[in-house]
Every structure is written in structure tokens, then in C-alpha cells.
Amino acid sequence: MTTDQAQFAALQQSLEADDYHLSLEVTGDDAVATITAGPDACAECLVPKDLMKRMLSPMIGVDAERIEMNYPVDVHAG
User: Hey, what CATH class is 5-70 in?
Assistant: First the structure.
């Protein structure tokens, strides 16, 4: 399965509205998604990592369990 570029771009734009930036590297059946924060980012605006993985999975064609999700800080840890 290939990445749905339109949906992925829409998610990136949504995150950018809160000064976050999403990058993605897909290698075979695995993916690494990294969200970085700009100076005006709102820590409470990010959904938990598990939810973000479930949102990304159908867009990029990688099982959620095989997505490594990197956040600027673990705001939902615990």
C-alpha cells in the first residue's frame, strides 16, 4: 500500500496550525514519524502517540504497531 499523499498533507497542515511539523520515513513495513515543535507550539494540542499512530496507519499503509512515533516531549506519558 502506498501513502495517501492528500490525507497526509492535510494532517501536516493541521499540525502546522499549532506550530508542529510532521516528517515521515517509511521503509518496507516499518515507519518512523517525527513531530517537532516550533516556538509557538501548544503541548496540550497533540493527541496521545497511540492515537496519532492509529490516525497515520491507514494514510501510510503501515500497521500502527510498526510505526515509531517521536514527539518533541512525552506530554501524555504516565
Answer: alpha beta
